[in-house]
Every structure is written in structure tokens, then in C-alpha cells.
Design a protein that fits this description.
Number of helices of chain A: 2
Distance between the termini of chain B: 31 Å
Shape of chain B: globular
Distance between the termini of chain A: 18 Å
Strand content of chain B: 5-15%
Low-confidence stretches of chain A: none
Mean pLDDT of chain B: 95
Helix content of chain A: 25-40%
Mean pLDDT of chain A: 96
Largest sheet of chain A: 3 strands, parallel
Low-confidence stretches of chain B: none
Oligomer: heterodimer
Order of helices and strands of chain B: HHHHEEHHEEHHEEHE
């Protein structure tokens, strides 16, 4: 399960990864701004949720 | 930069100077990967958005432009193209499963500095200046307790702007968030340690030499799922 920023979307797509969660952030801030704990939890729950929900390779979700 | 070289500086020189040059900036180094026209259009849009941000107090437009610029710079193909992937269905409920965390963020406990190239007191600036040397090296894995105090965690990585993750490591290495979710019962268990390494490393050595031992390490701990955070 990969959590990455939107700018890496194209590169990750060609790697044919099983599960990818993209965040709407710049490089170096995968889980947003420092100390935004609510957002960090939102991202983590979205990522963990993909373990059970994804049913095929190349599943890509997006979280804002 | 001398006044003579400033006078001769072209726009191409200018945009390339952000990529480990005289204006080295890890957030804007992507300008090196754009054409002159693309970079000019990005900068013009960014300046316009700056004025709007000042007027409105909203920074979302600036962030979106930066995401778009970085996305354009990273849209070109790489050597890592695969037609098939290693998908396997996750058969356990996450409340019963064991997880770990592996990030390419460059974090390490302050008392366990991996000392790149055998050097003490290696700084972030050193890492940026020697990023090409890092790209020839096999990565070193740092094991970090999920209970490691945030203020006792260090970060050093020559490939991205570490300022924000110095303030809060969880934005690239979300170890405290994963621990909290485990303590809340949202996931079953976690490994004793989380893991971080400097992603700016030899990708060939990483794949051929390093990764098999890391996979084995996870298997030995009977991990069901790993959260991978490329930075």
C-alpha cells in the first residue's frame, strides 16, 4: 500500500502497483501541513481502508 | 554568483539554478525539468496567484499551482515500467491484521545517525550538495520505535525540502498516527519498529541487494500489510 503525493501519480501508474492512495499535496508533505493531525488521520484511515476494499491490481484512490 | 555571470544569465540558467545550483531549492527544483516556455508560464501564473492569495488570504490556489508544476515535471517516463503488479487480496479484517510502516523520508533516531559516507555531523545542506553521491549508494535502513519521541527524531534527505517534516515528522513518516490507530483498535497490531531510509539512493542496489532482506524482515515479523510512503 503506497501513500504518495499527486505529482508522483504518472510515475506510480507505470509501476503497476497494487494499491495507491494519492494526496493533494506538494512533494515533501505527503500528509499535508505540519501538525494537521485531523488530516493525517483521514489519510491514514483512507489508506488502511484500501487493504480490504481494493480487489484488483492498480487500484488508485485520491484523498483531499 | 558574480555580477558578470548574473548579467549573462539566461532564463534557462535561471530555472536550472533551482536544481542544486546557485538558487538550490528542493520545492522548486522541478523547474529544471520543464521547458523554458512551461517554466515561464508556471512562474507567471504563480505570481498572479500570489497577488490573489494576498487579497483573499486563501493559499489553496498557490498550492494547486505548485502541485500542477511538480506533476508536469514528473510526468515523463522512467525506467520502472511494469505491465503487471504483485496484487494479492487482503484476507484479514484490518482490525485483526499486523501492519508496519516504511518511508523513504530519511528519518533516524538522533542517537543512531547512519553517518552517510562515514562522516559525523552530516547536515541537510551536506546531503543536498552530495545527492549525486547518495544516488550511487545502497540505502541504510533506520529502525525507529513507534514510541520514539518526536523531538528525538532527526531527518536528513538531499532530495526534498525537509523543513516541514522537521516540524512534524508525521507528514512524511506517519508513525505516531499509525500507533494511535492501533491503540484505538482500528488496526490489530504493529511491528515493534517503523522504518525509514533515504530514498535518494541507488535504485539498482535497492532492488537487487537491499529489498529482499527487507521483505524477509517483514515476513519474519509476520506482517500482513505495509504502508509505504515514498517522499
Amino acid at each position: 500500500m503506497v501513500i504518495a503525493v499527486q505529482p508522483f501519480a504518472k510515475r506510480l501508474e507505470t509501476m503497476s502497483l497494487p494499491r495507491v492512495l494519492l494526496t493533494d499535496n506538494i512533494i515533501g508533505r505527503v500528509l499535508g501541513s505540519p501538525l494537521d493531525i485531523l488530516y493525517q488521520v483521514k489519510v491514514m484511515k483512507a489508506a488502511l481502508g484500501m487493504f480490504n476494499k481494493a480487489n484488483k491490481n492498480g487500484t488508485v484512490n485520491f484523498v483531499r | 554568483m558574480s555580477s558578470e555571470s548574473m548579467a549573462k544569465e539566461t532564463f534557462e540558467d535561471f530555472r536550472k539554478s533551482f536544481f542544486y545550483g546557485s538558487r538550490s531549492d528542493m520545492t522548486f527544483k522541478f523547474l529544471d525539468h520543464l521547458t523554458d516556455r512551461e517554466a515561464a508560464e508556471f512562474l507567471a501564473a504563480y505570481l498572479t496567484a500570489t497577488t490573489k492569495a494576498i487579497d483573499s488570504g486563501e493559499l489553496g490556489g498557490l498550492k494547486q499551482l505548485l502541485v500542477q508544476g511538480q506533476s508536469a515535471a514528473h510526468a515523463h517516463p522512467t525506467n520502472f515500467i511494469y505491465d503487471d503488479g504483485p496484487f494479492s487480496a487482503f484476507k484479514k479484517d484490518i482490525r485483526d491484521a499486523k501492519f508496519s510502516l516504511l518511508a523513504s523520508s530519511g528519518h533516524f533516531p538522533e542517537k543512531e545517525d547512519p553517518q552517510p559516507f562515514g562522516e559525523n555531523n552530516f547536515s541537510q545542506k551536506d546531503a543536498e550538495q552530495r545527492v549525486m553521491d547518495f544516488l550511487k549508494e545502497e540505502p541504510v535502513l533506520s529502525e525507529i520505535s513507534f514510541y520514539q519521541k518526536r523531538e528525538q527524531l532527526q531527518v536528513r534527505h538531499g532530495g526534498y525540502d525537509t523543513a516541514a517534516t522537521k516540524e512534524d515528522p508525521n507528514i512524511t513518516f506517519p508513525y505516531q498516527r499509525l500507533l494511535e490507530l492501533q491503540l484505538q483498535g482500528i488496526i490489530g497490531t504493529i511491528t515493534e519498529n517503523a522504518y525509514s531510509f533515504v530514498g535518494a539512493c541507488s535504485q539498482k542496489k535497492l532492488i537487487k541487494n537491499t529489498l529482499p532482506s527487507w521483505v524477509k524482515m517483514m515476513q519474519n515479523q509476520e506482517v500482513d500489510g505495509v504502508l509505504l510512503v515514498p517522499v
